[in-house]
Each structure stands twice: as C-alpha cells, then as structure tokens.
Amino acid sequence: MDLKFVDLFLNPKVWAFLGAVIAFMVAALGSSKACGISGQAAAGVVTEEPSRFAATMILQALPATQAIYGFVIAFMIVGKIPAVETLETGLALMATGVPVGVVGYMSATWQGKVSTAGIHLVAKRPEALGNAIIYALMVEMFAILSLVVSILMLNQI
Amino acid sequence: MAVVKMNKIAVLGLAQERSALLKALLKFGVLEIDQKEPDENLGDSVYNLDVVSDLAKIDENISGLERAIDILSRYAPIKKPFLSARRIISEVDYDKRINKKDEIMSYAAQINNAEDDLTKLKAEENNLRNQLDSIEPWISLDMPLELTDTRYTFIQTGSLPGRTDLKSFEEKLKSEFPESELVIAKSEEDIHYAVIFGMKTSESDIMELLRGWGWNRITIRDGQGTAHERKEKLKASLKRLEKERENKKALIIELAKKREDLEIISDAFQAEKARIEAKSRLLSTNKTFLLKGWLPAEHSEKVEEYINKQFCCAVSIEEPARDEEFPVLFKNGPIIEAINPVIEMYGMPSSLEIDPRAITLPFYIFMFGLMLGDGGYGLLIALATGFALKKFRMEDKTRQFVKLLFFSGLATIFAGFLYGSWFGIASLTKTALWIVPTEQTELMMSYSILIGIIHMFSGLVMKGLNLIRRGQIFDAICDAFFVIIMYSGFIMILLPFAPGLTISSDSAIVQAGYKVFVIGVVLVLLTGGRKSKNIFGKIFGGLPGLYDIVGFFSDCLSYTRILALGLASAIIGDIVNTLATSFGGFIVIRVILASVILVFAHALNIGLNALGAYVHSCRLQFLEFFGKFLEGGGVAFEPYKAKTKYIVVDYESAAVLNSGTKTGIL
Question: What is the pLDDT of residues A124-154, one digit of tens each?
C-alpha cells in the first residue's frame, strides 16, 4: 500500500486515538506533578511528625483524581474507536478528550499546591485536616465539571 | 434533637474550700468554668491566682512519666487493637494508685535512668570499638605499645604511604643508620603500619629521612601492654558492657508490668493540671473566691444541691436571657451523633439556632450513597464499620465517625438498588429500580440538580424556621418564602434546557414559571430593602436579592458532582471487571490473575471514591446547604475535666448526675 504522510491526518482513527492521548496524558501529567510536589512536602512533615502519615497521605492523594477522570474518558474513547468510520467522528472524539485533559492538568497542578499548603497546615494543627481537604476540593470542582462535559460530549457521538 | 440547654452558675465561697470544691466538680465533669478577669477598679484585692510555677512542675512530672511510658513501648511493646478507647477504671482502683504515687514515680525515674545509662553504655562501647580498631594493625608486634624509648634507643610507631618501595627504603635506612631498624607491623593497600627503632643520638636525622618518605607518626592512646594483650582486655570490657546493657534492658522489661500504673499516674497529673488551670480562672481574694460558668440545665439542680450540702458556698443558678448565646453541647442519640464529625468540621452552630444535624444527616448519607453509587462497595463499607462498631469500644469521636461511615455504607447499598450497580457488574444494571447513570447520563444530571434544589430549598426553609423561632415571622416570609417563589419560577423557566428532559419552551409549566418568577422577583424587590433607613436603600435594597439568582444557578450546577462521582466509580468498576476477565491462557492462571486484579483494583476504587464521596458530600453541606441558613459562630461546650490519655475514671459521686435523665455527656 502506498501510504503517504498526509494519510495520517485523514485517518479518523488516528484522531480518535489522539483524543484518548490528550484525555489521559495531559490530565495524568498534571496529577503526577501535583502528587509529586505534595508528596515531597508530606515526606518533610513526616520526618518531624511521624504520626501525621495518614493525614498527609490523604492530602497527597487528592490531586490523583484528575488522572482518574482522564483515564475514564480515555477508556470510553478507546471503546468507541472500532466504530469510527468518518473523519468527523474521529475529530469529535479528539475534541472530547480536550476538556478533561487540559482542565484536569490545571486543576491538578493547582490542587497539588493547595494540598501542599494543607500538608503544612496539618503539620502544625492536625485537627485541621478537614479544612485542608475542603480547600483542596474547591479546585477539584473544575476537573469534575470537565469530566461531566467530556461525558456529555461523548454521549452525543 | 437539639442542643443541650445551659444554665449560668455562680458560686461564691471561702478560699479554704476552693481546692475541695474544684476537686469535687472535676469529678462531675459537667461544668464549664469561665475565665474571669478582675475588674481594674478593685485594685489588688481581687486577682487571678498565679499558677505558672505549679503548672511547670506538673508538666515536668507528666513529661517524665510520658518518657518512661514511651521507653516501655519501645523495649516492651504491646499490641494495641486498631480501634481502642481509654480504659475505664473504678474510683477505688484509681485512689489506690494515687496513694502509691511516689512509688510509681520512682519506677518512672528508674526507667528513665536505665535508658540514660543505656545511652552512656552505648557511647562507651563505641569508644572501646574505636580503640579495638586502632590497635588492630599492631597485633603482630610483641612489644608493649606504650614503649617509646629505652636507655639508648627511641621507638616510634607510624605509617608510610602504601606506594612506598619498602625494600629500597630499608636499604637506604641501613646504609645511613646501620644501627636502626624498621619493622612492618601490617601492610595494607594504601598504608604500611611500621615501628622504627633507632639510636637516640641520631633521632632527628632519622626522623628527617622518614619524613622525606612520607612518615606519619601514630600515637596509640590509652591502655598498656602489647596489642594482643590490649585486645583481650578490650574484648573483656566489651563483654562486660554487653552484660550491663542486658541487665538494664531486663530492668526496663521487668518494670514494664508497671505500665498501667504509670499511665494512671500520668493521667492523674492531667487531672491536677486541669484543676490548677481552673483555679486560675476564678476570681480570688485573700479569703474568698468566685466561680462563674455554665452547666447543662438538667444537671443544675443536682449540682446546686450537692454544693450546698457539701460546702459552705453561695450558689446561684439562672437561665440565660432569651437572646444570650451559651456554649453548645449536642444532645446525642444513637443515630444522630453520626453527623457530629461533619458539623464539627464546619464549626459549631450558634446555640440560638435550630440544631441542623437532624436535617443534615439524611442529606449527607444520601448524597454519599449516590456519589459512591455501588451497592457492593456500600455493603463492604457497612459490613466493615458495622463489625467495628459491634466489636470494639471506641472513643466518642471515633465511634461517631465510624457510625457516619456505617450509615453512608447503608445509603450506598440503597443507591446500589436504585442504580442496579453491584461491583460494577454490567449485566446487573437491568435490576436498576430507578435509573442507570452510565446509560442515561443526561437525565441523571437533571436528577442530580433536582436533588440539589430540594437540598437548597430545605436550607431556605431552615432559614425561615430560624427566623420564626426568633419571632421574626415577617422576615421569614420575605427572606425565605419569597426567595423560594422566585427560585421556583426561575427553575421552571429553565426546564426546557434541562438535559435529558423533553419539555418544550411553550409548555404550560414554563408559561406558569414566567408568572411565578415575575411575582417572586417583584416580592423580593419590594421587600429586600425594608431594613434600609433611607429612601434610596429602600428602593434598590432588593437588587442584591436578584443577584443571588446567579449564585443559586451556580450552586445548582455544583450538584452535578453527584452524577460525576457516581459515574467515575461505576465506570472504573466496570473497567476493573473488563481487565480482570480479559486474560487468555490456562484456566487456573486466569482465575488467579482475575481474582488478584479484582480484589486490589476494587479495593483501590472503593478507597479513592469513598474518600471523594465523603469530602464532596461534606462540601455540598458546607457551601450549598449551610450557606443558606446556618449562622454558626457557636462555641463548643468545654467542661472542666481532666484531659486524660489512657484512662477514664468512673467516679462514684458523679453517679448522682446520672440518676435522673441520661444525656450521654458523661
């Protein structure tokens, strides 16, 4: 078969795959970064206060959810790939990956910063764990909305 | 359920009875003592007792005991169950230990000294080991290492660099100083340990030569005899140290059976600390004291009677004024207490408000259930927490939290029936009683918002009830009822946009919505500015009320998280099942692989999504719900009692309080 480079851009399945890549990769990059920075802070706190392990671990885990949302959407997109026939569906599937991926990235990195601040808060006042979690959650809201948007879009394809 | 009614108490008594009274009240543990500052006009005659040095002494005792307990937990660890509560001990037992306080304190001192000794022994051992290392190279020499000269010769130990050509060096040495001798004790890759013997007359010349070849003098400190003799001595010392350490350890382990006594005395000091702190909160003169504070109304009579009978004090108890705030203590029942952790995280409601717990609990667990959304997961949570509740005795706060999880688990089972979702098994969705969110996502989104609207309207109703309770019936109508009318109209107008529903924009309900909305807006506009003094404020004061619609709209959308989190756990559950069953190969391997994946991945999914459901359900209560009505700002009731760590003393005199109504605060 005589394949040209340009065929890649006309292949609808390639576009759909790209959607799954964006959904998972971008969101997971954000979560990795966020869990990374908050994990460092957590380790620092636990050197001084070993009893704070559970609390700091919960805070560190919070920004992991964006990657999970990205994973859910990527999985749903991949599930639809066998049925992709037209370039239009392929591009649409790519678009569905964008909200959860890009918003997830931002939401995760910022949630990571808030979690880190929360870990410092818990270091001094362990009883404030609930408050620290709530602050971090405010940032999560946008990732949740982006998940909803991506799911709503997927349902139209 | 409500908050416990509090009465104000004031006790005026004689200074000599102060300690006895505080001791007796500590046992009750139902009285909050206010911090009272003396009036400056009264000068020096009225003051707060200075207790700083007393407290410092007690803290020192506590830290000594705590250190001993900590040492015991390291040398003789005991396994504590995962969930445990402070031991309950009888007053008789407690007093028995208090009488032996000095003896028990001496155990603590012995333990602490033993550990100090262990540290010292360790340092000594390190020192000996260093010495052992330093004589190791000289072990082949059979001369006393401390020997540095004889009558005519000098002797020096030292080292030459490993690269030295020993043969040519010795030739050189022999040719220049024939009467000298170099003995190599030990050769290593980069160093030769050696001894030089030479005539004292040519010492400086020999040393000159040696330095040129990189000689480095080594002095061997301490001890006597040849390296071999020294080594034997050091080994004997090490053995002795080892034995001594064993003895000290044995002593600590022997004392470990006093652990309970140490814990009780540590807590006894906590009680004393509480008492002394309380003492400084009172107003005192040289002959009298004045105590002011709060106590639950139901105990008022008995406490008053008790004080009057036992002490020569004047007691007065009065109810707070109608609009006076008092410390908040929740009246707990076996079910309602489950929501306490959520409320306490937000902050205490004011004592003048309706207790929000009864309405929050069902909303909280229902939303938790919908967000976790899998009956199988709910079953696991309910079983685990139910077992823990049955099996373990827990501290109040822990038990309340476990109970919250238990009820949330039950609600999740309920959600499982509604969604037909059981461990993410796809074929079971046919059993759904209500809706399958993964298939009717848009409809479920509308339902999520509907749940939110019911939630927020309940909040507005609560606001109205709070206003009515304060007698502001007109305010209740304007700020709650009119607002509900306006929001209802707003929702009806937006119905055609609701995802998953097919309502055309000219259906009857939407048309009615326009009318309701206009009526609501007019009412809110007319009444919003009623509290403003000037005419300008009266006209435009209602505008912020209109702006609240925007907030209300975003609050509605916030409830879509019920859908989103439910979907996330359902889809991940489904993914787990797909993955687990996707392997080929030999049946046994397939079964093993599948079960490992199923167990771990589902456990991870439960963990992550239960945490998500817990915190997001909290958030919906805090912002969307409490924001509508709860003023908060209440101060938690902090009774005067010992902040103990290990034990709860079952005081006999406190039984007087429980003879009547049972409140569960004791």
Answer: 998 888 889 889 888 988 998 898 899 889 8
Q: List the structure tokens of B387.
A: 């077992």
CA distances from B520 to B487, B516, B523, B524 (A): 8, 6, 5, 6
Q: Please indicate whether residue B187 or residue B603 has the higher confidence score (pLDDT).
A: B603
Question: Does position B284 have pLDDT exceeding 60, yes or no?
Answer: yes
Q: Indicate the residue of A68, A144, A147 with minimum beta-carbon distance to B608.
A: A68
Q: Per-residue pLDDT tens for B335-357?
A: 999 999 999 888 899 998 999 99
Q: Which residues of chain A have pLDDT under 50?
A: none
Q: Where are the domains of chain B?
A: 147-219, 336-629
Could you tell me if B18 and B279 are in contact, meaning their C-beta atoms sit under 8 angstroms apart?
A: yes
Domains and CATH numbers, chain A: 10-155 (1.20.120.610)
Contact between B615 and A137 using a beta-carbon 8 Å cutoff: yes
Best CATH choice for the domain B147-219 from the list 3.40.50.2300, 3.40.50.300, 1.10.10.10, 3.30.70.100? 3.30.70.100
- Cβ neighbours of B290 (radius 10 Å): 16
N-term to C-term CA, chain A: 31
Q: Report the length, in residues, of chain B.
A: 666
pTM to 2 decimal places: 0.84
Phi/psi at B283 (nearest 5 deg)? -95, 130
Give the closest residue to B447 by CA, choosing from B542, B555, B293, B563. Answer: B563
Are the C-beta atoms of B120 and B129 separated by less than 8 Å?
no
Three-state SS letters, B152-194: CEEEEEEEEECCCCHHHHHHHHHHHCCCCEEEEEEECCCEEEE
The residue behind tokens 């009298």 is B288
The pLDDT-based confidence of B279 (bands split at 50, 70, 90) is very high
Give the per-residue pLDDT at A157.
Answer: 83
Distance of CA B607 to the CA centre of its chain: 19
Q: Alpha helices of chain A — where are they, by DSSP H?
A: 5-10, 12-21, 27-48, 53-61, 65-80, 87-98, 104-124, 129-155
| pLDDT value at residue B19 | 92
Of A64, A134, A144, the CB nearest to B561: A144
The alpha carbon of residue B189 is apart from the nearest alpha carbon of chain A, in Å, by 41
Tell me the mean pLDDT in the region B624-653. Answer: 90
Does residue B441 sit at the A interface (CB-CB below 8 Å)?
yes
What is the C-alpha to C-alpha distance for residues B353 and B463, in angstroms, rounded to an integer? Answer: 9
Which residues neighbour B383 within 8 Å (Cβ) at sequence distance 6 or greater? B409
Closest CA relative to residue A146, chosen from A109, A113, A106: A106
Q: What is the C-alpha R_g of chain B?
A: 40
Both structure tokens of A125: 């006042």
Give contacts of B615 with chain A, Cβ < 8 Å: 133-134, 137
CA distances from B260 to B60, B89, B275, B394 (A): 19, 11, 23, 19
Looking at residue B661, what is its pLDDT? 42
Using CA of residue B264, residue B265, residue B266, residue B270, what is the dihedral sign?
positive
Residue type, A21: V
SS3 B197: strand
- Whole-angstrom Cα distance, residue B379 to residue B385? 10
CB contact under 8 A, A134 and B619: yes
- Which residue in B586, B156, B607, B59 sits closest to B381, CA to CA? B607
What are the phi and psi torsion angles at B49 (to 5°)? -65, 140
Distance, in Å, from the CA atom of B58 to the CA atom of B518, rounded to the nearest integer, reads 69
Nearest alpha carbon to residue B379 among B350, B406, B402? B406
Under the banding of pLDDT at 50, 70 and 90, the label for residue B665 is very low
Q: How far is A130 from chain B (nearest CA, A)?
A: 6
